[in-house]
Amino acid sequence: MVESDSLDQISGRHMLSVVAGQAGIRPGDPDWADFERRFDRHFPDLSRLFHSLYGSRPDFQDQLTSLVIETARSWKARPADLKVLDTEREGSSDWFQSNRMLGGVCYVDRYAADLDGVRARIPYFKELGLTYLHLMPLFLAPEPLSDGGYAVSSYREVNPRLGTMDQLRDLAAHLRANGISLVVDFIFNHTSNEHEWARKAAQGDPHYSGYYWMFPERTMPDAFEQHVREIFPEDHQGSFVQLPDGRWVWATFHSFQWDLNYSNPEVFRAMAAEMLFLANQGVDILRMDAVAFVWKQLGTPCENLPEAHTLLQAFNAVCRIAAPSLLFKSEAIVHPDEVALYIDAAECQLSYNPLQMALIWEALATRDVSLLAQALERRHNMPPGTSWVNYVRSHDDIGWTFADEDAAELGINGFDHRRFLNSFYVNRFPGSFARGVPFQDNPRTGDCRISGTTASLCGLEDGSAEAIRRILLAHSVAFSTGGIPLLYLGDEVGQLNDDQYALEDGHEADSRWVHRPQFPAERYAHRTEPSTPEGAIFAGLRRMIAVRGSAPELAGTRLIPFATNNPGVLGYQRPGEGTRILALANFSDQPQVISAETLSGFEAEAVDVLADAPVRIDQGFVLRPQDYVWLRVVPAG
Ligand code: GLC
Ligand code: GLC
């Protein structure tokens, strides 16, 4: 009897011999053996996943063969230094769990003019301790309406204002030589309407019309829209926009971003080729944009469908064969149950942590940590081989993505609470310190999100010590709960809102530009003067980065909850060998006491690692308003 495993292997071997010839690889080629080994290991998965998406099509076998040929070609073209990296990372698959990992994100043009400018900032990145740099979308995109680059018209060309693909490849190598991994977006849910495929589709080419969701009249759009939510209601109502020839095309985001039709296996193959092309330029991590939306099914909300996961796993299997050191980071800004489903070593190894991000702001507004503590307790720990990317804010808006069920358990009504948070962060709530602005205010549903830089949302406009402490407090959580902390570059010197954003061509209708200012040169110039707000914020963050890097307890993501018995103070433990880091963060405006009894599970002698000073905790512990400590404690034994 033949086991199904070995059957898979037999058909895999047959496939391999077919494709190798077509891809121009011959057994005996130096890295053939590596390809063969990875193929044997991952082809069964790829074939199963691809079959589950496209198996009912008569041309399934041909589609799969073509996909594998592309994979082999890409492997053949993969530069030798990346192949060395592939082997290294296979041997240390937890490299991204290190407590020395620190991320930064910026727009190439706004932060550094162009790719050469980014390269010139590497010394600063090293001063800061960055090991991960996310460059916002830098591919060819229509101007000025490109959604900040998220409407891509060619994945193989760099926007000429920023540089060339050769320069990107050089930059990737240069960053790597300096210990910094390059992260770029894989914007695979949609293309720009100026992408060649979209142009051909718009001209009526039936082949390329099949790359998008195009319908001759409203019957299907109407049927889909019954169940689908509006993402950018200020741009257009519903999910479809009309073409000059009368047809309707799916556009989840802006009208110029057309959703790709992944029910067509050719779209999968075409995008797999673009993905492998990017991988071969030396990109370490792909930020998988808008993952929730990639699969559509009539009669469903067309978000987070099971096939979206199958699709990501299939892309992942392609990488395991042809670009094995590449990682995926999921951008799923959805219900926390759904966020978690994208996180898996075989799907997205990394994920934004939008719940923690939103709840840090929630706790700052309410001065109550209950929701944040609950989230850490039940939604933080994650599977082996994966990690969070923890952030205080991103280039996008803040959406209040906590689960209504979780809130209800604490007696909080989700709808009302979101209204409160929105009014607090746009400074309409009495006593609010925040200077945010609304994003995608939808009067029909009452939905709204928030734009603003970290400093402005903390109220640094008034230059107050409280604002500085809030900024540091927020980062202290993102830097110590577990996962890769990600800084929006410029926030480390307290950059404020850009109130002039609407004057820039194409930005006037999108308030997210308020928190995407140009490189704050003045503020950076003050970063080493501790008496300035910039200097105080920079010094506080630098201290956290240094301490984090030397505290082995802060590696990985594992977290043990800690009940502070004080609604204003967040607590959690990060376990190491024999010791733990106990983090305490006071979100209230008053000094708070953590009682001796609450701390009685630990030995009396602890070390405040940020202050580098011994402390006794057997008489309780006092935190000043908006203060945080990381205590190295020993569980009482
Ligand atoms: C992602 C990006 C966001 C963009 C959207 C459409 O959510 O982060 O900036 O508008 O995708 O690509
Ligand atoms: C929505 C989407 C998210 C996107 C954001 C941009 O929240 O779910 O993917 O980043 O809109 O505003």
CATH class of the domain at 4-91: Mainly Alpha
**Share of residues in helices:** 25-40%
What is the radius of gyration? Answer: 25 Å
How would you write the strand order of the largest sheet?
1-2-5-11-12-13-14-17
The share of residues in extended strands comes to 15-25%
Task: Give me the count of strands.
Answer: 25
Tell me the number of helical segments per DSSP (H or I, 4 or more residues long): 22
CATH topology of the domain at 4-91: Rna Polymerase Sigma Factor, Chain: A
Quaternary assembly:
single chain
Low-confidence runs of at least 5 consecutive residues: none
Q: pLDDT average, as an integer?
A: 96
Categorize the overall geometry: globular
Short description:
With 637 residues, the chain is α/β, with parallel strands linked by helices. Among the domains are: 4-91, Rna Polymerase Sigma Factor, Chain: A; 196-259, Alpha-Beta Complex (Oligo-1,6-glucosidase, domain 2), CATH 3.90.400.10; 559-633, Immunoglobulin-like (Sandwich), CATH 2.60.40.
